[in-house]
Design a protein that fits this description.
There is one protein chain. The chain is mainly β. The chain has a domain of about 90 residues: Cupredoxins -  blue copper proteins (Immunoglobulin-like, Sandwich), CATH 2.60.40. Helix content is about 10%, strand content about 25%. The strands form 2 sheets. The protein has a 4-stranded mixed sheet with strand order 2-1-4-6, with no helix packed on it. Strands 3-8-7-5 form a 4-stranded mixed sheet, with no helix packed on it. The N and C termini lie far apart (about 65 Å). The chain binds copper (II) ion (CU). The site of copper (II) ion (CU) has 5 residues, from loops. The site of copper (II) ion has 5 residues, from loops.
Length: about 150
């Protein structure tokens, strides 16, 4: 019957979906309280692959790639450092003054079609409240009435 016509209409609608206009944006990582915030970010080449670190601490820090591919040098309080990632991969970095300060930038290729418009990462805050178990140590099992 007329199902072929319906298919043609559906296909023409699908073809009409063009690529959205790409705007390259910068991702900001704050250095605050001897931490990189957020410590783990994901960027997409051609979309937001420039990262801007801002030292909001009162002491100097560095942003130094674990493999040495980039380094900010000494960043005094208030200084910022910008690096553009053009190679897909996962890049760990640290502060050379405080090696416990670490962060990770995951770089995705430009072929990735990102449908997520929310750039907010909510992975940084993991609260560990395992010590409160001791207070609830008394487990009263209900007596079985048979
Ligand atoms: Cu530091």
């Amino acid at each position: 019957m007329g199902s072929a016509t319906l298919l043609v209409v559906l296909f023409s609608l699908a073809v009409r979906l063009g690529p959205a206009q790409a705007t390259v944006s910068t991702v900001t990582v704050q250095i605050d309280g001897f931490q990189f915030v957020p410590g783990t970010i994901t960027v997409v080449i051609g979309v937001n692959n420039t990262v801007n670190w801002v030292n909001g601490d009162g002491v100097a820090h560095t942003v130094t790639a674990n493999g040495g591919s980039f380094s900010s040098g000494t960043m005094v309080s208030g200084a910022n450092f910008t690096h553009t990632f053009n190679t897909p991969g996962t890049f760990g970095y640290h502060c050379s003054f405080h090696t416990f300060m670490t962060g990770t930038v995951t770089v995705l290729g430009s072929g990735v079609t990102s449908t997520t418009s929310s750039g907010s990462t909510t992975t940084s805050s993991t609260t560990t409240t395992t010590s409160s178990l001791s207070a609830a140590g008394k487990i009263s099992l209900p007596a079985e009435k048979v």
